[in-house]
Design goal:
Strand content: under 5%
Largest sheet: none
Helix content: over 70%
Structural class: mainly alpha
Number of domains: 1
Number of strands: 0
Order of helices and strands: HHHH
Distance between the termini: 49 Å
């Protein structure tokens, strides 16, 4: 079964969230809290992936079904088509990068907060 770019990028990133949490926790001295943060980061990753897919596909559906795209040869389609392709390619990468950064930063904060 073929997987498209957006789904493949987002679904493959689920493996990166626990790695980011473990790296942040271990390198900041919170070895005992690492398993909790790794398990929590899986849920965070699933929530980010689910919401990102919803936002991306609802945006694309609204644009594709709009009256501007009804005439595929008109100038709105020439502008919106490449723009939607750029959003389709960049959005999953941006969401994954931002999600990993926020997961890392949150785990660093949780590690330091647990040491207090």
């Amino acid at each position: 079964m073929a997987v498209n770019h957006a789904d493949g990028t987002l679904f493959a990133s689920i493996l990166m969230y626990p790695a980011a949490a473990a790296y942040a926790s271990i390198h900041n001295g919170g070895r005992w809290v690492t398993p909790f943060l790794v398990i929590t980061s899986i849920g965070i990753g699933i929530a980010i992936i689910t919401s990102a897919r919803f936002v991306l596909y609802s945006l694309m559906e609204r644009v594709i079904k709009s009256k501007l795209m009804a005439n595929e040869d008109g100038w709105p389609a020439l502008i919106l088509g490449p723009l939607m392709m750029l959003i389709y390619l960049a959005f999953p990468i941006v969401v994954t990068s931002l999600g990993l950064f926020l997961t890392y930063a949150g785990c660093v904060w949780a590690t330091h907060a647990s040491a207090l």
